[in-house]
Amino acid sequence: MTSSPAWIVGIGHAACAPARDDVNTTELAWEAISAALDDAGFQLGEIEGAVTASQDFWEGRTISSMSVNEVAGGTLRSEAKVAADGVMALLYAMARIEDGDQHLNLVVAHAKESQADPHTVELAAFDPYYERALNPDETVAAGLQADLYYRRSGLTPEHSARVVAAARRRSGVLDPLSPDEILASPITARPLRALDRAPLMDAATCLVVCDEQIARERDLPRVRLVTGAARSGPWWTARDLTVAPELRAAADEALERAGWTPDSLTRIELGAPYAHQQLLLAEALGLGEGEALVERFEADAGDPRINADGGWLGGTAGTVAGLASAAHAAHELRERGGRALVHGATGLCAQSHAVVLLEGR
Amino acid sequence: MTPVAAAIVATGQTDHVSRRLDASMAEIAREAIDRCLASRNLSFDDIDAIVAGNMEMFEGIYLVDQFFVDALGALGKPLFKLNTGGTVGASVAVCCYHLIASGRYQKVLGVGFEKQSDGSTQAAITTVGDPIWERAVMAGAIGNFATMASTYIHESGVTEEQAAKVAVKARHNACRNPHAHLKLPNLTVEEVLASEYLAFPIHRLDMCPSSDGACAIVMVAGDSADGLAEHPAWVHAAVTAHDQQYMGDSPKRLAVMRSLRAAAEKGYRQAGIADPLRDFDVAEIYEPASYAELAMCENLGICEMGAGGRLIDEGLTQMDGPLPVNPSGGVQSTNPVGATALIRVAEAALQVMGEAGEHQVPEVRRALATGYGGNAWTDLMILSRERPTP
């Protein structure tokens, strides 16, 4: 068979804020969708369907895509909801385009974290038999992970604070902060401080994706969705929390499928909500160790740049993060060309990993 | 471009019951997977990717796929977690299809699971409605279907007796299916009508049960199918269509199933179906209530609009009729929600493969399977013994 390449031809974000209490979920998603449609020059009626990403628990609604499928072009058309990071939705959408079934789709990720009680939601992700009685949440698990990682790597909370500061400096959403300000934020789960975690936000991102024929006929500025891969990791208490071999394996598979060498990448987007996880994941990708690794996060020049728009720590929401990163990367690649690896994680302590490779002309 | 041909070559189900006290939800999912893989001497080493479906608010486990990663055999592999309501099992099968048809993977395991006895399904289903406009007035599945069935009675003239005949057919068919939950060999129309109203016009025996159970399939690419099954169930259509989110936006809902009509139109075109009553040998239709099967048959073009009652009166959808509908016993006999729509697909595949045992319909060459969920959403698959021609 000959697979049809998939392209990103439209990019849209909703205005991201700690609480978008001026809009409901449908309106939040529509903000991103209408921006992406305008960017690509399409009307909603031309869209054949969508793959959406959201989490019922955060949305407080079973089948949480009910809120958005209508504004995502799903009426009497095809919408599927992935309950994972937005990169997984993007991988599914690529398959739908590549097999020729769909030609013009939206990929939409949305979350309104302000409407949920984070502890209640996160507690529900733990083993109901053995773990929930301890009343943990994602930060408790991440704190244990950070402690182990700092011991193993020799890195410290000061290094993580520099990663957060670098993300804040590049963010279009959050105010800049110095490492000292980050270190002065309250302890949440030792050794983690409040600002080591990306703040909870209300966010939505939409990409318009299409096949080769539509991209050519419309002569649209575009970024190629080259390939992708995904690997699931073990449950958080059943693995070494200081390494991420599944990320490396997914990245290696994708690069091999694309025929790319790692040094041909101009941009890397890492999707994890805690600063120490960013360092851990970058290390897993072979981007360095120790002080040199931290400097990679701070560098504004040299390839590949990491989280050039601040990434998750720069302001977005869980589930949306990977797709938002793909959107930021696509925006740059469309203007300047280059090659990007975009990563998204799902699960406690960044359990499972998905990557997608993008190329601008 | 030409999609890679995809076929279901293996299926596995648990023996569905109201309450599995002997197994956790992970163990239930694994039981279906093990049965599926063992049926063809496959192992996890043969599987490239996993697609999982479960409605996690029903049991209250957020990120259930990550918790069950080892039970699902997904360690070190891609794991797609879908969550689309009652359709989710069929959405799993549709996703398996795209992952293979695109050339990304060769062998994909699809699994749907639910342990409803661990949670409160109706409480979770109540959250499906818009929190401002709908939740206060449409709680759970029964009220929803009662409203729809009333509309359907008004539009089609179908009677409570005709609906009861569907309920009886399902529970009789279930007696020949070793996996079915609700087997009632002596059930009569009179007993269905004598069972209490849950909400008019739905009698208790018009409604599906609440089950613990799981279902798994293996779908493979092209030539690898032939070595795995004597008669692979080739996918000729895998279609999804949704309706609008608010119940009031779907005119004459159930009587008119716009999403089912849209999905059927596309699926029939892809698979070359001109006359569904003639061209299909068997159908597995997602009918949470007895009325739904009749209304869905109308909207699928199996009979004229408004003629659903006559369809059951004349026995056309009975096991010995020209188009047996739900020889497995259907949703009315078995309903572990995350698995239910995948069971429709798996049962259709079993019929095409000629491996349905006591509930096998003779000489099946083409089968239809549908999933229903959310606000009148549809997934639809068409399976055939013939490999699709490029």
Can you walk me through this structure?
The complex is a heterodimer of chains A (361) and B (390). Chain A is of the alpha/beta class. Chain A contains twelve helices and twelve strands. Chain A has a domain at 6-116 and 200-217: 3-Layer(aba) Sandwich (Peroxisomal Thiolase, Chain A, domain 1). Chain A has helices at residues 25-40, 56-59, 86-98, 118-123, 138-153, 157-170, 179-183, 212-217, 245-258, 275-284, 290-298, 321-336, and strands spanning 6-13, 49-53, 78-82, 104-112, 187-189, 192-193, 202-211, 223-231, 267-269, 305-306, 338-346, 352-360. Chain B has a single domain (6-121, 209-384), classed as Peroxisomal Thiolase, Chain A, domain 1. Chain B contains 14 helices and eleven strands. In chain B, the strands form two sheets. A nine-stranded mixed beta sheet of chain B has the order 3-2-4-7-1-8-11-10-9, with helices on both faces. Chain B has a two-stranded antiparallel sheet with strand order 5-6. In chain B, α4 (88-101) crosses α14. At the A-B interface, β3, α3 and β8 of A face α2, α3, β3, α4 and β8 of B.
Blueprint of the fold:
The complex is a heterodimer of chains A (361) and B (390).
Chain A: E1 6-13, H1 25-40, E2 49-53, H2 56-59, E3 78-82, H3 86-98, E4 104-112, H4 118-123, H5 138-153, H6 157-170, H7 179-183, E5 187-189, E6 192-193, E7 202-211, H8 212-217, E8 223-231, H9 245-258, E9 267-269, H10 275-284, H11 290-298, E10 305-306, H12 321-336, E11 338-346, E12 352-360
Parallel strand pairs in A: 2-3, 2-4, 9-10, 9-11
Antiparallel strand pairs in A: 1-7, 1-8, 4-7, 5-6, 8-12, 11-12
Chain B: E1 6-13, H1 25-38, E2 49-53, H2 56-59, H3 64-67, E3 79-82, H4 88-101, E4 107-115, H5 121-126, H6 140-156, H7 160-174, H8 189-194, E5 197-199, E6 202-203, E7 212-221, E8 233-241, H9 258-271, H10 276-279, E9 282-284, H11 290-299, H12 308-313, H13 330-333, H14 337-353, E10 366-373, E11 377-384
Parallel strand pairs in B: 2-3, 2-4, 9-10
Antiparallel strand pairs in B: 1-7, 1-8, 4-7, 5-6, 8-11, 10-11
Helix pairs in contact in B: 4-14, 7-11
